[in-house]
Amino acid sequence: MSVPILIPHASGTNRDLEAAQAIELAGGTPTIAHVNELRSGAVQIADHAAILLPGGFSYGDALGAGGRLALELRTWFADELTAAAEASRPMLGICNGFQVLVKAGLLPGPMDKPRSVTLTENAEGKFECRWVTLQVEPSCRSGWLGVVGGTTIRCPIAHGEGRVAVSDDTAAAHLEDGLVAFRYLADGARPASDDPVAAGGMYPANPNGSVNDIAGICDDTGNIVGLMPHPEDHVLDWQRPSGPEGGSGLPLFEAFVAAAR
Amino acid sequence: MTVRIDVTAPDDPRGSSVVANARLVGVDGLTSCRVTRVHHVDGALSPEELDRLCREVLIDPVVDEAVIDGVTPPQGRVVEVALMPGATDPDARELERAAANLGLPEIRVVTARRYDLIGDLSDTDVATITRRMLANDTIEISTEGELPAEFAGAASADVRVDDVPLAELSDDDLLRLSKNRVLSLDLTEMQAIQAHFAAEGRPPTDAELETLAQTWSEHCVHKTFRARINLTHTSSDGEVTVSSEDGLLPALRKVTEELDPPWLRSAFVDDAGIVAFDDHHDVAFKVETHNHPSALEPFGGANTGVGGVVRDIIGVSARPIACTDVLCFGPADLPDDELPTGVLHPRRIRDGVVAGIGDYGNKLGLPTVNGSVLYDPGYVGNPLVYCGALGILPHGSHPTEPQVGDRIISLGGRVGRDGIHGATFSSAGMDASTVDHVGSAVQIGDPIIEKGLIEVIERARDAKLYNAITDCGAGGFSSSVGEMGEDLGVEVDLSEVPLKYPGLQPWEIWISEAQERVVIAVPPAKLEALQTLCDAWDVEVTDLGRFTGDQRLVVHYGDTGVVDMPMAFLHDGIPRQELVGAWTDPAPVEVTTPVPTAAQVLQLLAHPNVASKENIIRRYDHEVRGGTVVRPYVGPEADGPADAAVLKPLGTEGHKAVVLSNGICPSVGRHDPHAMALLAMDEAVRNLVAVGGDPDQVAVLDNFCWGDPTKPDRLGSLVRAVQGCTDGARTYRMPFISGKDSLFNEFDGEAIPGTLLISALGLVPDLRRAVDSAGMQTGDDLWLVGANEGALGGSLASDLFDLGATRVPTPLHDPLPRYRAIHAAICDGKVTAAHDCSEGGIAVAVSEMAIAARLGVSVVVPLDGLDPFTALVNEAPGRLVLSAAREHRDAVGAFLGDHGRHLGEVTAGDDVVFHLLDPVQGEDSNLEPIRIPLADAVSALTHGPSGPTKGATA
C-alpha cells in the first residue's frame, strides 16, 4: 500500500530531494510541493499520511531561521495542521523544518502557549558542517520514534542557527519530561555532557552549544518530531565517512513511514 | 509614519566575535559588544498591528529583547551601519511580505545594524573598529550614533536618452571619454566607434556607447586572448627566439578539436563546458573569477561570484549540483604598516570572501566540495577568488536555437543601479581611488532568488518551454540579449522591466548587472505555461521583446528610441589587437640545502599554504544533496586533507561518480610560466587519480589571472602559460572544455603573480572503490610512484627556508602510463589509501597520511641521486604515495611495474619516521632518522604557524 508523504517546499528549501530519497528507501511515496501549490489547493495536505518539513533556508532565513515559513504555516495552514494533529498523523521537521516547527509554536507546543524554546545562533557564532553522532532518546514519549529508541545515528549537521535554547529552567525541565527526542553523543558512546542539566556539552560533539546536548525534540502528543542534524544524508552505506561508529538514518525514516501507514 | 524597532539577543555570539576581532586590529580596550538589529518600518500600522508584527515575526520571545518605536538606550559607544539605499536587503523584503501574510497594511522597510561598543575606547579605537570591521563604505553607510532611515529612490527621474557627440573629438578626447565613463575602451576601439557613427551620420546614444563598451570589454570578448601576439623569448643563456601567436583562445580550442574524445559534448561555445556522465546524463563545469569585486567588498564580491558561476551552469540548462572555490590572499598576518592605502587587510578579505561563498552556496543547497587557499604577498592589493560550479542535465536536453518570433523573457531578480560597469571595471587595474569610481559595480547577492531560477529552469527545460537560454551576467541585458540575438536580431522595450526602485535611466537598466537573472527565448504559445510554472515557484517573469530576424539590435523605452545598431557592428566591429609579449627565463642559481630536521617538517606542515583549512571548509555545507563520497577532510578525526572530491549525483543510477580536483602553483610561474601550466595540470590529474578517477577521461578548465596584458612582461608570461596549456593538453590527452581569463589584476601598477588554475573533471567508475588519504591500516606497505628531482624553484621549501632556487621541476613527457597503472590497482581494490606529493614533497605527503589515518608510519626516503633534504621536500611532478596490504605486495608490484617502489610501512607506533640515506657513503649507511611524534604533526597541521595557543580565529 502506498504511504503518501508530503514534503513542502518554500523558496529556499533545499534538502527536499534527499528527504524524498530517504522516504522512498523507507517505503513511502514522497510528494514535493511548493507552499504556493498547497495554498492554491493544487496539492492537498489532507491527501497525505504524514508531513516531512525538509532542510534548507526557507526565504533565506531572513528575520531568523524558519520564521517566515513558520508564519505562513500559522496564517495559511492552521486548519490543515490542526486536522493532521487530530488524526495523529506524524510530522517530522529536519534542520530548517525543525526551526519552522519550533518558530511556529508546534514544537514543543502547544501553539497557543507562549514559546519557551527556540533555535538560535550556534555558540561558535558561525555556520558549521560536520558529522555528529546522535542517540534517539530512550525516554522520549514519541510513540513512533520509540520504535528506534536508544539507537545511534551518524549523520552530518549543516547549520548556523541550531542551538536549542530555553527561556528558563522550567522550560528545560519540561523538555526533560519525555520531550527530548535526540541528543548529541561524544564518540558515539556516551552523552556529550556528563551533567545532563549543564547548558552545552563538549564542542564539537555538541556542535552548537544546545542546552543539555539536545539535538531534537517532540511535542506533547509525540506525533511531531524535529531535529537539527540530517539523517536523510546517511541512508546509503557509501554516504558514511570513516570515523566513529554509529548507524544509518534509514531506520528513523522507516519508523516514520510505518507510523504513517 | 516611520517606526523604529530595535531587536537584540543579549547572548548573540556575534558580539563576542567583534571583541575577538577588535584585538586582531589592535584594539584591546573593547570588553563587550552588543549587536542590535534595527528595523525602520514605514506604513499606516496601528499600535496593535505593530505589536502583532513584532510578536509574530521580529522578536523571538526566548532570546530577544526589543525596543518598539524608540531607540535602545546606549550602553557604550554606539555605531550604526546600514546598507546604501537600494542595495539588496532580504530582511527588509521579508518583513514587508510578512506584514502582507498577516493581512496588515502595506509597509516599506529598511534595516540597519547597531553595535554598542563597551569598554575603554578612544575615538581612534571606535573609528578603527568601524572602518576595519563593522562597515564597508563601498556598500554601506555608518555613523557613530543613530543613523536616520533612508528609503531608496523616492523621486522618479524623467526618462532621458542622451546623444554622445563623437565627431569632433580628438584622440585625447576619445580616451578621456572612455576613462570618464568607465568604458575601458582603447583608442583604436573608440576610433572604430567614431567612424561607425560618422558613417551613420549621427552620434551614438549613451546606451549605444555603453552597449559597445560592455560587448567589447575584455571581460566579455576576451580581446587579449583573440589578439595577434609577437613573443620574444630569451633563454637564461641569452638565446632569443621570436614567435607569433595567432590568438591564444583559438590555440586552446584547436587542441580540444584535435583530441575530440567521444565523451566530449560541448566545449568553449556556451556558458560552461559539457561532457558525458553516463548513458543518460551529461555534466557541465565552469569556473569563474570575481577578483576586483572581492577586493572592494569581500562578502558581496564572493557572494555574487558564486551566484554568477552557478548561473553559467543554469545557462546550459543544467541543474547545479556542486561548487568549488580556490582563493589567493595576501598573508593573513600582514603587519598593518605594510598595508597599502585603499586596500582591505588580507584577513578581512579572507573572512568576508569565505562568509560570502558559504552564504551563497549553502543557501542554494549546493555542496562546496573542492578548493584551495593560497597565501602570498603578491595578492595583498588584488586577491583572487575563483568560484566553480558543476551541473547535471539529461543528454541532449539543452536547446540553443532561438526562433524568429520567440519572446525574449527575463526571469528572476529586479534591476537596480547596483552592478553598473562591472564588466568594464574588471577590465582595468585598481588603485586607491577605484572604490570612488566604481563602487556601483559591487553588489550583494540574493541566493533565494537564484534558487528559484534553478527550480524553474529545470522544469521549463523538461517541459521544453524555451528554445535558447543565457545567463545575465557581465554587461546585463546589453550583453545577454545582444549575444542571444546575434544571428537573428532583437527588438526590446525596457519600459516594463521591474525595477528595485524608480529613477533608473534606460541605459542603466540596459547594462545593469543586477544579479539572479537569466534570459530565455520562448515561443509565444508557451508563455502561459511558463507563467504558471514561475508563479508556482515565486519567480518573476518579464517580457522584454522579440527575436526579429532583421539582424539589428533595437531597444526602446516606450516610444523613446534607445539603441538601433546592426548586430554585425556590435559583434564584429571591434578591431583586432596586435600585442607584444616578452619573457626571459631566470638565470639558474646554485642552491645550498640544509641538513633535514624534524623541525623543518613541522614548519612545512604549519605553513599557511599547507596547514589545515578546516576553519574555512566547515563554513561550507559539503554534504547537501547526499552525494559526497570523498569529502574535503577525511579520516577518523576528519582532519586529513583529501586530494579531490568524489560526488555521486543525486538521482543517477549505478555507482558511477564524478571527481573534481584542481592544480595551482603560481610560485613556479614566477620562474617558468610554461612549466607552471604543465605542473598545474599534473597536480590536477594526480589529485584526481589519487581518489580513484580515471586518467583517460579527464576534462579541464583553464583560469588565467594575470596583470595588465598591454605590458610586455605580463603578456609574455601569459603567452608562455597558454603554450604550456596546449602542450599539456596534448601530453595528458585532456581537452580544455571552457575557461576564463581575468586580466588587469594590478594594484597601483603592481601585478599579481601570473596565476593559472587548472580545474579537472573526471569520473570514478565505481564509487565503492574510491579511496582517500586516510584509509590505510597498520601493517600496510607504503609505495612511492614517481621519482624525485633536484629542482626546488617554486617549492614551498625554497620559500620557507629562503633557498632562492629558480630552476623548477621538469614536466613529465609521458605521464599517462603511471596514472593508468595506479588507476588499475585502485579499481582492483588493492589500494587502501593514496595521497599526492605536492607542497612539501614526500615529507608533507607522508605526514598528512599518518595524520589522516592517526597511524604511525616509517619510510625510507629514496635519494634518486639527491641530497637527503632535497629528496625529502622536492616537488617533482607525477608522484603519489599509496598504501596497500602486505598480502597484496606482489599484485600491487605487478600493477605499478617500474612506476612504483616500496617506500615503507604503516606501523603500530605513534610517530612519523623518515629514514634518511647518506649520499656520500652510499645507500647502506643511514643518517640519523627524523622522528616526529604524531601528536606534534597533528598540532602543526591543525594549528598552523601561530601554534595551538592561537587566540580567536578571525
Task: Give structural notes.
The complex is a heterodimer of chains A (261) and B (954). Chain A contains 8 helices and 12 strands. Chain A is α/β, with parallel strands linked by helices. Chain A has one domain (4-260): Rossmann fold. In chain A, the strands form 2 sheets. In chain A, strands 1, 2, 3, 4, 6, 7, 9, 10, 11 and 12 form a 10-stranded mixed beta sheet that branches. A two-stranded antiparallel ribbon of chain A has the order 5-8. By secondary structure, chain B is of the alpha+beta class. Chain B has 31 helices and 41 strands. In chain B, helix 27 (816-827) packs antiparallel against helix 30. In chain B, 58% of the residues are buried. Residues 949-954 of chain B have low confidence and may be disordered.
Layout: helices, strands, pairs:
The complex is a heterodimer of chains A (261) and B (954).
Chain A: E1 4-9, H1 16-25, E2 29-34, H2 35-40, E3 50-53, H3 67-76, H4 78-86, E4 91-94, H5 96-103, E5 117-120, E6 128-136, H6 143-146, E7 152-159, E8 163-166, H7 169-176, E9 180-186, E10 190-191, E11 214-218, E12 224-227, H8 250-260
Parallel strand pairs in A: 1-2, 1-3, 3-4, 4-12
Antiparallel strand pairs in A: 5-8, 6-7, 6-9, 9-10, 9-11, 11-12
Helix pairs in contact in A: 3-5
Chain B: E1 2-8, H1 13-24, E2 30-43, H2 47-58, E3 65-68, E4 77-83, H3 90-101, E5 107-119, H4 123-134, E6 140-144, H5 171-180, H6 187-200, H7 206-215, H8 218-221, H9 223-226, E7 228-234, E8 240-246, H10 248-259, E9 264-266, E10 273-276, E11 281-289, H11 291-296, H12 298-314, E12 319-329, H13 346-364, E13 368-375, E14 384-394, E15 407-412, H14 422-425, H15 434-438, H16 447-462, E16 468-471, H17 476-484, E17 490-493, H18 506-511, E18 517-522, H19 527-536, E19 541-547, E20 552-557, E21 560-566, H20 567-572, E22 578-584, H21 598-606, H22 614-617, E23 628-630, E24 633-634, E25 640-641, E26 645-647, E27 657-664, H23 666-669, H24 673-690, E28 699-705, H25 712-732, E29 736-742, E30 746-747, E31 750-751, E32 755-764, E33 781-785, H26 796-800, H27 816-827, E34 833-836, H28 841-853, E35 856-860, H29 868-873, E36 880-884, H30 889-896, E37 900-907, E38 911-915, E39 917-918, E40 922-926, E41 930-933, H31 934-943
Parallel strand pairs in B: 7-22, 12-13, 17-20, 28-29, 35-38
Antiparallel strand pairs in B: 1-2, 1-3, 2-5, 4-5, 4-6, 7-8, 9-10, 10-11, 11-14, 12-14, 15-18, 15-19, 16-18, 17-19, 20-21, 23-26, 24-25, 26-27, 27-32, 28-32, 30-31, 33-36, 33-37, 34-36, 35-37, 38-41, 39-40
Helix pairs in contact in B: 10-25, 12-13, 13-16, 21-31, 24-25, 27-30, 28-31
